[in-house]
Amino acid sequence: MTTIIRLIVIAVYLTPILGVLAALTYPYQASICNLGLVISTVEDDFPGTKGLFRAQDFVKKSKFQGYLLMLMLILLNILIYLAFYVISTDDDDQIGHITRFAFLLVATVLFCLTIFFNNIVSTLLYLELKSGYHLVHNVACTGS
């Protein structure tokens, strides 16, 4: 019985640490998944998991460019989500139903635009990394 209690205590202490690690690694994993989706769609030679492995190589070689870009996009999404949440859960009847509907409509359009913008940024990041990869690969092959 004491072993179970010790395991529970250890789990309670490890949960916040794992949460912080998950929050720090989420932008990295999200950038790999977004780039993997772009690579799988654009490149015929890299379907599915091959696209994810190529995206992982690109993100490793980009020196945190994809990580920081994804972090900024996530922070932008959080701001829009907070505005959406505050407006949708407001119990105050001072703003009317039509005003609340208009705010929620604007927040929904902003959500859609950020998702669209996220996909465009991922595509442009892939094209940037691909051109840099070919430039480095050609210089290494020719020696000039």
Automatic annotation (TrEMBL):
Chain segments annotated as transmembrane: 7-28, 67-89, 101-127
Keyword Transmembrane: yes
Keywords: Membrane, Transmembrane, Transmembrane helix
Domain of life: Eukaryota
PANTHER family: G-PROTEIN COUPLED RECEPTORS FAMILY 1 PROFILE DOMAIN-CONTAINING PROTEIN, OS08G0107100 PROTEIN-RELATED
Name of the featured protein: Uncharacterized protein
Lineage: Eukaryota, Viridiplantae, Streptophyta, Embryophyta, Tracheophyta
